[in-house]
Amino acid sequence: MEMHAVEKMVLRSPAWGAFSRRAVLPWTLRFADLPGRAEVLEVGSGAGFGAEALLERFPGWRLVATDHDPEMVELARARLERFGERARVERADAAALPYPERSFDLVISILVWHHVEAWEEATAEAARVLRPGGRLLLVDVVLPPFAGPLARRCPLHATYTLPDLRAALAGAGFARMREAGGLFWYRVLAEVPEGR
Predict the structure, then answer these.
(1) Could you read off the pLDDT of 109-147 as tens digits, one per residue?
(2) DSSP secondary structure string for all residues of 163-188
């Protein structure tokens, strides 16, 4: 799903970078005990603010930052260039990832899933590219339980509820580990079972 101009403007802004680094990322990382060394895929990196902060915080990570929008890919590539071989930036569709099965230890996506029209397929793709024991960390916004049928027809974003996401995770083979959130925000940490 293409972002509209206002969203792109926000994602390029220093204010979004500061909000990402000072609020969203700490809130996300407090929730998940993440490995010190890992092959990581970030789905929907935008301008690369989150990937930059993650690479600074986890020097043992090698991270592939992806986005569907070519403009965001170029911005992220410029931002992450200083990390050398630890960071790659590529254009990719979340619902058709161009990576072999079992390529990553961790897939992270922060405030992106609602932009992915085929979010169920993206959930299955995350499971496919994760190694056994690998984890998916999602942070996003969802429809509240009381949202009516019109809310599901928003032309700007894919819309789903937390029960919809739980069903998609189970269908993709994830063992749901932990979730937290409120009416609109959630954090989910799900794992691909070792024996798959």
Answers:
(1) 998 998 898 999 999 999 999 999 999 999 988 776 666
(2) HHHHHHHHHTT-EEEEEEE-SSEEEE
Taking only Cα atoms into account, the Rg of the chain, rounded to an integer number of angstroms, comes to: 16
- In the sheet with 104-110, reading across from the earlier edge strand, the strands are 87-91, 60-67, 37-43, 104-110, 130-141, 185-191, 175-181
H or E segment at 130? strand 130-141
Distance CA 91, CA 74 (A): 9
Q: pLDDT tens digits for 75-102?
A: 999 999 999 999 999 999 999 999 999 9
Q: Is the pTM of the predicted complex or chain greater than 0.85?
A: yes
Q: How many domains does the chain have?
A: 1
Please state whether beta strands 104-110 and 130-141 pair in parallel, antiparallel, or not at all (unpaired).
parallel
48 lies in which domain range?
5-142+149-191
CATH code of the domain in which 115 resides: 3.40.50.150
